[in-house]
Amino acid sequence: MNTGLPPDPSGFTLRAPQPGDMGQIVSGQARLYAQEYGWDWTFEALVAEITAQFIRNFQPGHERCWVAERDGQVVGSVFVVRQNAETAKLRMLYVDRSARGLGLGRHLVAHALAFARGANYRRMELWTNDVLVSARRIYEAEGFRLVEEDHHHSFGKDLVGQVWALDW
Predict the structure, then answer these.
(1) Total Cβ atoms within 10 A of residue 71
(2) What is the DSSP pairing of strand 87-95 with strand 145-154?
(3) Above 60 in pLDDT, residue 116?
(4) Please, is 155 exposed, middle or buried when counting C-beta atoms within 10 Å of its C-beta (0-12, 13-18, 19+)?
(5) Which end of the chain offers a freer environment for a tag, N or C, measured as fewer CB atoms within 10 Å?
(6) What CA–CA distance (Å, rounded) separates 18 from 159?
(7) What does the alpha-carbon distance between residue 140 and residue 105 come to, in Å, rounded to a whole number?
(8) Is the pTM of this model over 0.90?
(9) Tens-digit pLDDT profile for residues 9-28
(10) Domains located in the chain, CATH noted
(11) CB within 8 A of 13, min separation 6: which ones?
(12) What is the DSSP pairing of strand 13-15 with strand 157-167?
């Protein structure tokens, strides 16, 4: 059966979160963005808040998280959350350095889009920053378009926040 999804990148398993995964995702993202972009510890607060809200307010059938695992280690994730009845929000796409360049980010986004379509959303939005070039390339390849930009000072840096959207 053709699911419309790209084949799984070799050696990875996508699964639902298990106890302990969310803490690893928060820690992994905080460390990665500190190392790669010089973001400070306030970014960790943001991802911890998003994660806690997802756990507390989880709506089965409308929301989902995929955890990418390889050799027993969490190496990526993506979340879909309900923004409203017609709009899903893609959150916290994350691919660990050890899993870069293997198509995992594209695979995670494809799963998120397939889920959102199957849940009868008509639109998906996401917020990112312009310095996250690799992630933005994935979004553009999937057909997302830039709908808003805003200069802000967050995580110890001057950044350009962006809202991207895809309608179907």
Answers:
(1) 9
(2) unpaired
(3) yes
(4) buried
(5) N
(6) 33
(7) 13
(8) yes
(9) 668 899 999 999 999 999 99
(10) 13-121 (3.40.630.30)
(11) 68, 69, 70
(12) unpaired
